[in-house]
Design goal:
The complex is a heterodimer of chains A (614) and B (542).
Chain A (H helix, E strand, L loop, with lengths): L26 E6 L11 H9 L4 E7 L5 H13 L4 E6 L2 H14 L7 E5 L1 H5 L6 H19 L9 E3 L3 E5 L3 H12 L3 E5 L14 E2 L4 E2 H14 L3 E4 L2 E9 L2 E8 L2 E7 L1 E4 L4 E2 L15 E3 H9 L8 E5 L20 H10 L15 H15 L4 E6 L9 H9 L3 E4 L7 E4 L5 E7 L4 E7 L1 E4 L3 E2 L2 H10 L26 E3 L9 H21 L1 E3 L5 E3 L9 H5 L5 E7 L2 E6 L9 H5 L5 E3 L4 H12 L3
Parallel strand pairs in A: 1-2, 1-3, 3-4, 6-7, 6-14, 7-10, 14-25, 16-23, 17-18, 17-23, 18-19
Antiparallel strand pairs in A: 5-26, 8-9, 11-12, 12-13, 15-24, 20-21, 21-22, 27-30, 28-29
Chain B lengths: L7 E6 L3 H10 L8 E6 L7 H9 L4 E6 L10 H19 L6 E5 L5 H18 L21 H7 L10 H5 L1 H5 L5 H9 L3 H6 L11 H5 L6 H14 L11 H9 L24 E4 L3 H7 L8 H13 L15 H5 L3 H18 L3 E4 L2 H15 L5 E4 H10 L11 E6 L3 H5 L4 H9 L3 E3 L22 H16 L4 E4 L2 H11 L7 H4 L2 E4 H8 L7 H4 L3
Parallel strand pairs in B: 1-2, 1-3, 3-4, 5-6, 6-7, 8-9, 8-10, 10-11
Helix pairs in contact in B: 1-4, 2-12, 3-13, 14-24, 18-20, 21-22
C-alpha cells in the first residue's frame, strides 16, 4: 500500500537564479512545506508564486524543512546572493524556531530584528486541513501580512544584562535538593527555601520506592545531610516566597520566614514546589467513613509503622479521583450481550464524582509496589488490584511480572460501573465489582481497601505561579514553555521548573528534571551575561508632554518623568527594565512613545494587509 | 452563489492568546478559516486605533485575546486592554458599526479548545449579523485628492508671493517662541525659493496651530494658515503624514462617518424630556460632542453637557431645534490635517442633510464647525440657504429679544478664552462677552492677552501635540489664574478639552499656579438660567 507513494514527494519550486529589482527594502520569502504538515494542505507552489508577486519581494523559494541545515543554508545563501534586507519565513509558529532563524540571518550578516515569521502551520494548515482551498487563501494572506510588516522592520541593538551567579531553589523535596546540590557543587551560591519546617517534601512520608524497593529515607537522608553541610547552600525552612521583582539575572526576592521578612538577590530561580497527594472527599469509596479505607500514601505510612498485620485480603482500587472526564476507549452501547448491558445499566449510577482529568502516571507502579511489599511480608494475604487500565511503562514491566509471580490478582472494571464498598456484619469491608473480562459481578471481602489517588497541584504552588507569572496547564500544574523543545524552561527568562511541580513524577523522573533545570540555569549563570530582547519603548522628546500617564501604568518602573528644561518634564525609558508590553505607548496621548519592533506603523501595515482585497 | 464569509482580524497576545491558538493547531482542532491573526506582546498593546483601522479597512469583526485577569505576563496589561476596549465598543455603537463586532476574550496558553470554539462562535455570529457596512467601499485614501494647485499658485492665492520678510509672523508665533527652529517666515521663504520638497518634508509643517496670529499681524494679510493647509494636503498625497495625537482615533471616527453607508446612533445624549423636531427654523449642529464624551472621559470634562445645556436653553426659549440623526463630523480637523478627500465627502453629505430640513438657521456650540459650515463649505459647494451662527451669537439674540431671562444672580468672577476659530478666524469677540456680562452678578476679568491677541490653547486639529503644547497650556492657565477669576469660560469644546487635559496631568509647576475651573459658555448660561443642577463646574473642583 505504501510502495507506490513512497518515492513521491511534493516537488520544490525551482530557485530563482537572477537577481530581481524591487522598490524599497529587498524582502526574501521562504515558504516551508514542513514535509506534509503544510504542503499536505496548503498549495505551497501557489503561495510561492503569489509571494513573488508582492511588493518588495526580491526572492522567493520553498523548502521541505526550512529549519533543517539545508534550509538554513539556503536562507544564508539567498541573503548574500540576492542582497536581501528582510527575511520572511512562512512555516510554524515563531514560538518554536524564531531564535533559530534569527541566528541564521545574523550569521549571514543581517540584523536579526529584520526577520519575520508567518505562521502557516499551527494557525493554518493544521487547523484547516479539511478546507485546503481556504487554507491556501489564508496562507497567502498571512504571507502578505508578514511581508508588509517585514518591509517596515528596523534593525535593533540589544542591551546586555549581567547575570548574578546565585540561584533560588523553591522547595526542598527530592527535586529541590538535587537541584540545590548540583548547583552548589558547580560553585554557584544557592538559597534553598522550603515552606515546611523540615527538608524532604513528600519523600519524608514515603516508605519504600519502586522498582528497587529501597527505603525512601535511604535516598533522602544523604541528600539532606549534604545540603545542610554544603557551604554554598543557605537553607531557609518555614519560608514562603512572597514576591519576586526584577528580571533574569537580577531577581529581587522577598521571602517570609516565620513572619519575618528576608530579601536577597539571585540570578536564576528553580521552582521545585512539588505536588500534593489527593485526599478523596468523604464518602468516595467510603473514605472517611470506614477506617480501613485508606489512600496509598496512608498505606505507605502504615507499612512503615508495621501496622499491617497479616490481613486476609487487601483490595486496591486504581484511578480514584483521576482520569475523570478522560475520553473512554469504548462506549456502553457497544456491548451487545443483553445480560451484560442489563447488569451494567442496573449498576450504572450518575455519581457526581469529584476528580482530576488526567492520569497520574505513578499510581499503577506505586500500587504494585505496595502489593509486593504486603505479599512478601505476608504471603498468605490475598492482594487484589481493581483497575480500569494498567499503565506500567519502561522497565517497570518487571515489577508487574514480579507481582504476578507473587499471585497478586488484577481485576478490570469500567468507569461507569465502579466498585462499591459496604461493611459486612463482622466489620470487614465488602467490595462488589463487575469483572469486565470474566463478565460477571465479583464480591470480595477484605480488611483493607487502598485507594490509589493522583498527585495534584498544591494551592500554594498555584499562588506561587501567580507571583512568578508562570502560566498553569489545564490540569493546574505549572506549565513549561514548550512540552518538547523547552521542557524545564518557563516563559519567564531565568526561571526554571523541576520535579512534580509540572506534573506527577516518580523519584528518578524528578531527579532527572531537576538536573535538566540545573543545566539550564547553570548555562545562563556561567555565561555571566545575556542579551535582552530589543523590544523596548522609546520616547520622542518633542512629542512628550510630560503628562505622566506612562509612568502611572508601567508595572516595571521602566519609565519615569525627569526635568529636561526649566518647567519642562519628559519621560525617559530604562531599556533594561522595560519589558516591551506596550501599555505605555497606548496610554501616551500624543504618540510620543514608539514600541520598537511592534510599532504602530508595523501593526497597522498588518491590519491593512490582512484586509486588502485581492 | 458564494456565501458571505465574515472577515475577522485578531490581535492575540504572545504569551496567552497566540499560544492558545498555537495549541489549537498542535491539537489539530478545526475552526473556520475567517480569522487573520496579528501577534502583539500584550493585549495591553492593542490601541483602539488599531481596531478602528481594521473596521475602516472593511473588517467584519475584531477579536482581542489576552491572558486571564490576574495572569497577565506584564501584570496589568490586560486590565488596560479591557478598559480601552470598553471605550472602543461605545464608539462603535455611536458610529452604528455595532459593539458586538468587537470581542475581548481571555484565552490562556493551555486553552486551545477555547480558542477554536471562540472562533467558531464569533464567525457564526458575524455571519448572522451580516457584513459591516464599512466593507462596501474600498477604504478612502487617507491622502488628499490631487492637490493639483502648484506651489506657485498657492503662494499667489494666499498672497505669500508678496512677503516682505518683515518677520512679524515669526516674532508673534506662539510656537516659534517655544521652538525657535520653527519659523513661519522661513517656511514662506523656502516656498518662494521653489524648495517645495523642503517645505513638504519639514516636520514644522505640522507644528503650525493655524491660530491666525501671524495672519493678524502680517502687514500684507498673508494667509499663512491657508498655505499650511494646502501644503499639508500636498504632503499627504506624497504619503507624508504629520503626527496625530490620540493615535489618530479622532480622524478614524471622522473618516468612518465620511462613508455614505454610515448610520450612526448619535442622539442617545438627548434627554427624554427634551423637545426636538424633524423640521423647523433652527437646527442645532452638535458636532463630535457625543464622541468626545467617550474619548475624553478621563480628563474631568463632560463634553456632552455642552450639547445638553444648549438644548435646554433652546427649549427654554421656546425653540424646538432640528437635530440630525445622521449628522456627520464637519471635517474641519481632516481638512487641516491634509485629508481634503474625506473632508469634501463629509461636506457634501452634511450640506445635503441640512438643506433637506429647510431650516433657516444653523446654530453650533463649536467654533470649528462654525467656521467650516460658514466659510469652508460654501467655498466649494456654493452659498447655502441657511444662516450659520455660533452659540454665542444666537444666545446674544435670545437675550436681546428677551426670549431668555436670568432669574437671579450668579456672583462670580470669570475670565474668557477667545477660541482661535471664533475670534481671529471669524471676528467674533463681542458676542461671547455680551452673553457673559448679561448674567447678573458675573464679573468679567480679561486676561492680558485677549481678543485679537489671545493665546491659542496649544493644539489644533489633533496635530503636533507635545512638549510645546504643554508649555502653552501652562502659560495660558497661569494667565487665567492671574486674573483671580473663579472660572475660565471657554466657547470651544476643543479649548476646554486641551486646557483640562493639561490640568489632569503631571504638572511641571505648582498646582496653585494653574489650576482653574473651566466651563463652556452654554453650560454657564444654562446654569445661570437654573436649567441644570450640576455642571463640570462642580466636577472641576480640585
Amino acid at each position: 500500500m505504501l510502495k507506490p507513494v513512497r518515492p513521491t514527494r511534493k516537488p520544490l519550486t525551482p530557485k530563482p537564479a537572477m537577481r530581481k529589482e524591487v522598490e524599497g527594502p529587498r524582502v526574501g520569502v521562504f515558504i516551508c512545506q514542513c514535509g506534509v504538515n503544510i504542503a499536505g494542505v496548503v498549495d505551497v507552489p501557489e503561495v510561492v508564486k503569489y509571494a513573488d508577486s508582492l511588493p518588495h519581494v526580491a526572492y522567493c523559494e520553498d523548502n521541505i524543512y526550512t529549519c533543517s541545515e539545508a534550509g538554513l543554508a539556503s536562507i544564508k545563501d539567498a541573503i548574500k546572493n540576492h542582497g536581501l534586507e528582510r527575511v520572511v519565513v512562512a512555516s510554524c509558529t515563531p514560538r518554536t524556531h524564531e531564535p533559530l532563524f534569527r541566528s541564521a540571518c545574523q550569521e549571514a550578516g543581517m540584523n536579526k530584528y529584520l526577520f519575520e515569521m508567518a505562521n502557516i502551520r499551527e494557525q493554518c494548515s493544521w487547523v484547516h486541513s479539511h478546507e485546503p482551498e481556504k487554507a491556501t487563501v489564508k496562507a497567502k494572506d498571512i504571507v502578505r501580512m508578514a511581508v508588509a510588516r517585514a518591509s517596515q522592520l528596523q534593525p535593533q541593538e540589544e542591551a546586555e544584562i549581567d547575570i548574578k551567579d546565585s540561584s533560588l531553589v523553591i522547595g526542598a523535596g527530592i527535586a529541590g535538593l538535587t537541584a540545590a546540590l548540583s548547583l552548589a557543587n558547580q560553585g554557584f551560591k544557592v538559597y534553598l527555601t522550603e515552606k515546611e519546617p523540615e527538608l524532604g517534601g513528600n519523600l519524608r512520608r514515603l516508605h519504600r520506592l519502586y522498582p528497587t524497593m529501597q527505603a525512601a529515607s535511604e535516598v533522602l537522608n544523604p541528600l539532606v545531610e549534604a545540603a545542610k553541610a554544603h557551604k554554598n547552600i543557605r537553607i531557609m525552612t518555614s519560608t514562603a516566597i512572597t514576591d519576586v521583582k526584577g528580571y533574569v539575572g537580577n531577581f529581587h526576592v522577598i521571602a517570609s520566614k516565620n513572619g519575618q521578612k528576608h530579601e536577597f538577590e539571585v540570578g536564576t530561580i528553580i521552582v521545585a514546589c512539588g505536588a500534593l497527594n489527593y485526599e478523596p472527599p468523604e464518602g468516595l469509596y467510603q473514605y472517611g467513613i470506614y477506617g480501613q479505607v485508606v489512600t496509598q500514601f496512608e498505606m505507605d505510612q502504615l507499612l512503615h509503622k508495621d501496622a499491617i498485620k497479616e490481613p486476609e485480603r487487601v483490595i486496591m482500587i486504581q484511578c480514584v479521583g483521576a482520569r475523570k472526564g478522560e475520553i473512554r476507549a469504548y462506549e456502553l452501547e457497544a456491548f451487545t450481550m443483553s445480560d451484560t448491558s442489563r447488569i451494567l445499566r442496573k449498576i450504572l449510577k450518575s455519581r457526581k464524582e469529584e476528580g482530576w482529568p488526567y492520569c497520574s502516571r505513578i499510581c499503577c507502579m506505586n500500587a504494585i509496589k505496595n502489593a509486593i511489599l504486603i505479599k512478601e511480608k505476608s504471603p498468605k494475604t490475598d492482594v487484589v488490584i481493581l483497575h480500569s487500565d494498567l499503565r506500567i511503562y519502561k522497565e517497570y514491566e518487571d515489577i508487574y511480572s514480579k507481582a504476578r509471580d507473587l499471585q497478586v490478582k488484577f481485576i478490570k472494571f469500567i468507569e461507569e460501573a465502579s466498585p462499591e464498598i459496604t461493611e459486612t456484619q463482622d466489620k470487614r469491608l465488602l467490595v462488589s465489582v463487575y469483572d469486565m473480562l470474566a463478565g460477571r459481578e465479583v464480591q470480595l471481602t477484605g480488611d483493607w481497601v487502598v485507594l490509589s489517588t493522583p498527585l495534584i497541584p498544591h494551592k500554594d504552588s498555584v499562588l506561587l505561579a501567580r507571583t512568578l507569572k508562570i502560566p498553569l496547564s489545564p490540569e493546574g500544574f505549572l506549565m513549561e514553555a514548550h512540552l518538547k523543545l523547552r521542557p524545564v524552561d518557563t516563559q519567564m527568562d531565568g526561571i526554571f521548573l523541576a520535579g512534580a511541580a509540572t506534573g506527577p513524577k516518580d523519584v528518578p523522573e524528578s531527579i532527572v528534571s531537576a538536573k535538566a533545570a540545573v543545566a539550564r540555569a547553570a548555562t545562563l549563570m556561567a555565561n555571566k551575561k545575556m542579551r535582552a530582547e530589543a523590544i523596548t519603548a522609546s520616547v520622542n522628546p518633542d512629542l512628550c508632554r510630560g503628562c505622566g500617564r506612562c509612568e502611572e501604568v508601567c508595572e516595571f518602573n521602566a519609565i519615569e518623568l525627569v526635568e529636561v528644561a526649566p518647567k519642562v518634564i519628559n519621560a525617559k525609558v530604562n531599556e533594561i527594565s522595560c519589558k516591551g508590553c506596550g501599555t505605555c505607548s497606548v496610554t501616551c496621548p500624543t504618540g510620543a512613545i514608539t514600541m520598537k519592533h511592534f510599532t504602530k506603523g508595523q501593526v497597522n501595515a498588518m491590519v491593512e494587509a490582512a484586509l486588502a482585497r485581492v | 452563489m458564494s456565501r458571505y464569509e465574515p472577515r475577522i482580524v485578531g490581535f492575540l497576545c504572545n504569551w496567552c492568546g497566540y499560544a492558545g491558538a498555537d495549541l489549537a493547531g498542535t491539537s489539530r482542532l478545526s475552526y473556520p478559516a475567517n480569522i487573520r491573526i496579528i501577534r502583539v506582546m500584550c493585549s495591553g498593546r492593542v490601541e483602539p486605533a488599531f481596531i478602528l483601522n481594521a473596521f475602516e479597512n472593511g473588517a467584519d469583526g475584531v477579536l482581542v485575546a489576552g491572558c486571564h485577569p490576574g495572569d497577565c505576563h506584564y501584570r496589568s496589561g490586560n486590565q488596560h486592554a479591557e478598559k480601552r476596549i470598553e471605550k472602543t465598543k461605545k464608539l462603535l455603537d455611536l458610529l452604528g458599526v455595532g459593539s458586538d463586532r468587537v470581542r475581548l476574550e481571555w484565552i490562556s496558553a493551555a486553552e486551545g479548545e477555547k480558542f477554536a470554539s471562540v472562533i467558531k462562535d464569533f464567525t457564526e455570529k458575524l455571519r448572522v449579523k451580516g457584513p459591516s457596512w464599512l466593507g462596501k467601499e474600498p477604504p478612502s485614501t487617507r491622502t488628499a485628492h490631487d492637490a493639483k494647485e502648484s506651489i506657485h499658485d498657492v503662494l499667489k492665492r494666499t498672497k505669500a508671493l508678496y512677503c516682505q520678510e518683515c518677520g512679524k509672523c515669526s516674532s508673534s508665533c506662539p510656537v516659534t517662541r517655544l521652538d525657535p527652529s520653527y519659523s513661519p517666515r522661513l517656511a514662506v521663504e523656502k516656498a518662494l525659493l521653489g524648495l517645495e520638497d523642503a517645505v513638504l518634508t519639514d516636520k514644522g509643517l505640522w507644528s503650525c496651530l493655524t491660530c491666525y496670529l501671524c495672519r493678524q499681524r502680517c502687514p500684507l494679510d498673508i494667509e499663512y494658515d491657508e498655505l499650511i493647509r494646502t501644503c499639508r494636503a500636498k504632503a499627504a498625497t506624497s504619503g507624508i503624514a504629520g503626527n496625530c495625537s490620540h493615535e489618530g482615533v479622532l480622524f478614524s471616527l471622522s473618516r468612518i462617518m465620511a462613508n455614505p453607508e454610515a448610520r450612526q446612533n448619535r442622539l442617545k445624549w438627548v434627554p427624554k424630556e427634551a423637545e426636538i423636531a424633524k423640521t423647523g427654523d433652527v437646527l442645532y449642529f452638535a458636532g463630535c460632542l457625543p464622541y468626545f464624551n467617550v474619548v475624553f472621559d478621563d480628563i474631568n470634562v463632560k463634553n456632552i453637557e455642552i450639547a445638553q445645556s444648549m438644548l435646554k436653553i433652546l427649549n427654554a426659549a421656546g425653540i424646538r431645534p432640528v437635530l440630525l440623526e445622521n449628522e456627520r463630523c464637519c471635517g474641519h480637523d481632516l481638512s487641516f490635517a491634509g485629508d481634503r478627500n474625506n473632508f469634501e465627502k463629509l461636506a457634501k453629505m452634511n450640506m445635503a442633510a441640512i438643506t433637506e430640513t429647510h431650516v433657516s438657521t444653523v446654530v453650533t456650540t463649536c467654533p470649528e464647525c462654525y467656521r467650516t459650515l460658514k466659510i469652508d463649505y460654501p467655498e466649494f459647494l456654493g452659498q447655502p440657504k441657511f444662516e450659520v451662527l455660533h452659540a454665542s451669537e444666537f444666545l446674544t439674540n435670545l437675550i436681546d429679544e428677551g426670549k431668555i431671562k436670568f432669574p437671579g444672580k450668579l456672583p462670580m468672577k470669570v475670565s474668557y478664552q477667545d477660541p482661535c476659530r471664533l475670534g481671529r478666524h471669524m471676528g467674533v469677540y463681542d458676542s461671547p462677552r455680551k452673553v457673559i456680562t448679561s448674567i447678573p452678578g458675573v464679573e468679567l476679568v480679561e486676561m492680558s492677552r485677549n481678543r485679537e491677541s489671545a493665546l491659542c490653547c496649544g493644539v489644533s486639529a489633533w496635530m503636533g501635540c507635545g512638549r510645546h503644547s504643554k508649555q502653552m497650556q501652562m502659560e495660558r492657565l497661569a494667565e487665567a489664574k492671574g486674573t483671580a477669576a473663579d472660572l475660565l469660560v471657554t466657547a470651544c469644546p476643543k479649548c476646554q478639552i486641551h486646557l483640562n487635559c493639561a490640568l489632569s496631568e503631571k504638572l511641571p509647576v505648582n498646582k496653585e499656579e494653574v489650576a482653574i475651573e473651566t466651563c463652556d459658555l452654554s453650560v454657564l448660561v444654562a446654569r445661570a438660567l437654573n436649567l441644570t443642577q450640576s455642571s463640570n463646574m462642580e466636577m472641576n473642583k480640585k
